[in-house]
Q: What sequence folds into this?
């Protein structure tokens, strides 16, 4: 098959032979984005990985990208260790094996985290050297809010909430929401804390294995489909509301935290009402 009749791997038209791979490609692209690639970098990497060695001009034409941007993309992939340039004229580019590429990305992320961790102590000490000039006023005690973007910052906020919880911890969400928390060890943190956990799951057609391992008395299921709703209330003093939940890719998850008394009371009442209407697992 020549390039003129080559089927486009990224063709989303329902009547094309490659359409059945659309969802898998989107998942692979999103996972590569989670590893730090841009959408265009992920697209070029996937293209090279499935079509073999290509010149920048061929990549630009196939993916409908500006040629200057394409050169920047292939060079950035080389710098990340995900692609190599062949000694040919014109230069051709080849993607690394997927397993090796992921291993490289993981190693780079681990190195970055280790570097940041090494700076933690020195940064904290430098911060302490600077005097505190703020004067506390009634305004500094006002209600607060925080917008969190991405699974990492959100999970860190949940951990803070768990660590400060002394009375009750309430979670409302879908199975995918709770599964994401389960894999992030949220329930292990709650179990280790001196707090009372209650969860409302919706919808729940069948009990997944990770929920069956937990205390069924702390879980109730709502028959109605409200899977786009997910929130956490801690000690009736703070609330975390997911604006985009686990139905979205990891980096597109948004959550809103606040200690607003009015909002906390509202979400607490919503949870308690859902708990009363919910059904026991067994």
A:
């Amino acid at each position: 098959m020549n390039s003129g009749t080559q089927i486009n791997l990224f063709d989303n038209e329902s009547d094309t032979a490659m359409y059945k791979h659309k969802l898998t490609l989107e998942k692979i692209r999103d996972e590569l984005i989670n590893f730090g690639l841009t959408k265009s970098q992920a697209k070029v990497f996937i293209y090279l990985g499935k079509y073999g060695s290509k010149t920048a001009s061929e990549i630009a034409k196939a993916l409908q990208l500006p040629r200057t941007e394409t050169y920047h993309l292939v060079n950035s992939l080389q710098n990340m260790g995900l692609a190599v340039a062949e000694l040919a004229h014109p230069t051709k580019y080849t993607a690394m094996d997927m397993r090796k590429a992921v291993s490289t990305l993981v190693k780079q992320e681990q190195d970055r985290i280790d570097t940041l961790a090494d700076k933690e102590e020195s940064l904290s000490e430098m911060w302490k050297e600077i005097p505190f000039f703020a004067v506390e006023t009634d305004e500094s005690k006002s209600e607060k809010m925080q917008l969190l973007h991405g699974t990492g910052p959100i999970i860190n906020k949940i951990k803070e909430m768990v660590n400060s919880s002394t009375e009750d911890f309430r979670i409302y969400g879908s199975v995918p929401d709770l599964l994401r928390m389960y894999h992030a060890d949220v329930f292990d943190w709650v179990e280790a804390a001196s707090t009372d956990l209650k969860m409302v799951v919706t919808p729940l057609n069948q009990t997944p294995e990770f929920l069956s391992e937990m205390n069924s008395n702390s879980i109730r299921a709502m028959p109605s489909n409200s899977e786009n709703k997910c929130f956490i209330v801690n000690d009736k003093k703070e609330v975390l509301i997911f604006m985009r939940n686990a139905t979205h890719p990891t980096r597109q998850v948004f959550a809103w935290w606040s200690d607003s008394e009015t909002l906390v009371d509202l979400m607490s009442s919503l949870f308690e009402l859902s708990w009363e209407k919910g059904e026991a697992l067994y």
About this structure: DSSP finds ten helices and eleven strands in the chain. The mean pLDDT is 84.
